[in-house]
Write a structure and sequence with these properties.
Largest sheet: none
Number of strands: 0
Distance between the termini: 38 Å
Order of helices and strands: HHHH
Strand content: under 5%
Number of helices: 4
Oligomer: single chain
Radius of gyration: 17 Å
């Protein structure tokens, strides 16, 4: 974190719990200002994904794909649990 930025613990309600910003609180979504990035697919219900799109999504969810996102510096990798959940949706 930049030395010019003062981290502030936030809570969803007045009574807390208050959570400090950080990698783990962003990844587990306990920090109230963490945001998600979504990928939406435009396909007819009941139809299979295009094989190229399916392979791309598997790559994004792969260890290599997640490492590339993390190296970019603007995104955190998904947790192993989230990756498993998303891969199951591709089956």
């Amino acid at each position: 974190m930049s030395p010019e930025i003062k981290p502030i613990a936030l809570a969803e309600t007045d009574g807390g719990p208050y959570v400090m910003p950080g990698k783990s609180s962003f990844q587990d979504r306990s920090y109230p200002l963490a945001r998600n990035i979504y990928i939406y697919l435009n396909r007819a219900p009941g139809h299979a994904l295009d094989p190229k799109l399916h392979e791309f999504l598997r790559y994004v969810l792969s260890r290599e794909g997640q490492e590339i996102l993390a190296r970019d510096g603007n995104y955190l990798p998904l947790t192993a649990q989230v990756v498993r959940e998303q891969l199951a949706k591709l089956q």
